[in-house]
Amino acid sequence: MTPEEIKMVKASWAKVVPISDQAAELFYGRLFEVYPEVKPLFKSDMKEQGRKLMAMIGTAVNGLDNLEPLLGAVKDLGKRHVDYGVKDEDYDKVAECLIWTLNQGLGDEFTDELEAAWVKTYTAVADVMKDGAST
After folding, report:
1. Are 61 and 10 in contact (CB under 8 A)?
2. What is the rounded distance in angstroms from the CA atom of residue 57 to the CA atom of residue 54?
């Protein structure tokens, strides 16, 4: 990612943080509406799950300048997701719903350029998680 893309993602995430509970609700609502087959993968309290998701995204976004220290934890997260029943194709479903959620939350500020930067961000994290899942 370019420094400008990192800056854009961080700035946009800063606008999501104050509405993170609502963003998580939007995200999971969309995920379960469009991909109801993934709902059984979520057995815990969804508010808590939403907080975990937002915290994980925040950690990844804040670490975009230097992802190296996060790689081990992200790989471990991918490994744990295998135990939950997550498959590689589920990452694409999450990506689609994350982008949709960001678009909903940021409105006109969610430009094509910002979307492309978020896709790069998510892809980088998802690829490391998938790598962890396959080890």
Report:
1. yes
2. 5
What are the start-end ranges of the E strands in 8-125? none
- pTM value > 0.85: yes
Domain that holds residue 13: 3-133
Q: Cα dist. 41→44, 47, 84, 87, 98 in Å? A: 9, 15, 6, 11, 17
45-89 pLDDT, tens digit per residue, is 899 999 999 998 999 999 999 888 888 888 888 777 867 778 888
For the chain, what is the domain count?
1
Distance CA 96, CA 45 (A): 23
